[in-house]
Write a structure and sequence with these properties.
The complex is a heterodimer of chains A (207) and B (186). By secondary structure, chain A is mostly helical. Chain A contains nine helices and no strands. Chain A starts with 6 loop residues before the first helix and ends with a helix. Chain B is an alpha/beta fold and 186 residues long. Chain B has seven helices and eight strands, in the order H-E-E-E-H-E-H-E-H-E-H-E-E-H-H. In chain B, helix 2 crosses helix 7. The longest helix of chain B is centred in the first third of the chain and has 19 residues. The chains are: A mainly alpha (207), B alpha/beta (186). At the A-B interface, helix 4 of A face helix 3 of B. The complex binds flavin mononucleotide (FMN). The site of flavin mononucleotide has 23 residues of chain B, from helix 2, helix 3 and strand 6.
Chain lengths: 207, 186
Amino acid sequence: MFFPWAPAHEIIGVLLIVVWAVHVYANRRWFKAIFCGRYNPYRIVQTVVNCVMLVCALFLAISGVMLSNHVFAFLGIESGASFARTAHLLASHWYFVFIALHIGLHVNVIFSRLGIARFIAGASGAASSSRGVVVVSRIAVALASAYGVYAFIERGLWKYLTLQQPFFFMDMERGYVLFFVDYIAMIVAFAVAIIFISSLIRLRQRG
Amino acid sequence: MKKLILILLTVLMGVSMAAEKKILVAYYSRVDENYGVGEITKGNTEIVAEMIAKKTGGTLLHVEPAKEYPKKYDDCINVAKKELAQDARPAIKPVNMNPEEFDEIYIGYPVWWGEMPMPMFTFLEKYNLKGKTIHPFVTHEGSGLSGVQRLKKVTGANVTAGLAIYGHVAQNEREKAQKEVDKWVK
Ligand SMILES: Cc1cc2nc3c(=O)[nH]c(=O)nc-3n(C[C@H](O)[C@H](O)[C@H](O)COP(=O)(O)O)c2cc1C
């Protein structure tokens, strides 16, 4: 549905499950440590976010297999489409929001791996121009977040999250490019929100 | 005076020729249980189709699958999914008119899995509608105007901007639906 070439949806889905499995496996130590040590507020937030993601991913994958018309067609699943359809719609949207929160919680790791932190911190050496880069990137992030909030409302994402919109609408007037722009901006907005919240939590923990 | 009569005659002829434009309103619509409307005795798309036929003076044609779909929404959606996956062409009941003989065709259907229900493919593929003008209209519960790409592909027709009305609006808020139809049909 909603792809110019129908099997694309399923192939991308399978690839994402593979990426997900690799990611979970690579971070298996986090899961093993879940019952160890003390829980401070920050760790609670992180754990809740990860656990919600895990539930979403499972529902998304299972319903995806059930809904498959191509890749998993050989399984011959002929019932449960109504449940699977609703599960897929709900899980995908909640997953999206929580992936954004997850990205926000790990933004330092991501940036240092990608060398972005170093780029911003050490841009061209001179202290003044480095501050310039920081200011410009903060403004860019603020604008992107504001646009993300707008996109969230404009596309009625809350309607999908609460099942007020039971069938997906692909707005062809906005097209595919804006689809990606809008959803990436929403990720930025959610990530920034959780970064703010978690830094508040950390401040309170210290203070 | 002669001139005036001539002008009048041409105008009259023009009007009568326009009136002779043959319009078909072909649609599929399902009764029984459906999403957001419960048990219904007249399909959502059928309600819209009748409004369009009344407004345009067109002929109604209800495309009916030979084998009825399950009455329960949850069962129907399973069957519809399987048909879409297999790109099936479910048999339809015999049709007693030829769409090729019409000048303009309104094609209506409920959006099923983001596409036309498969019996519409069975119906459309029986005829040569290449180059004809098709006005698509759908009822749906959120997906909006869907399935038009495949409608274009399967007919090769000149498909105009379509109309999408919520199924529950067609069923329960007919005045609102009528307004949307009036705005769309010119
Ligand atoms: C099998 C099935 C699949 C459906 N799939 C969709 C869909 O993908 N998107 C949507 O918006 N509505 C979907 N619906 C809802 C119908 O499009 C909607 O109820 C429509 O108004 C039904 O029209 P009818 O009474 O003329 O059959 C589906 C309904 C059924 C029964």
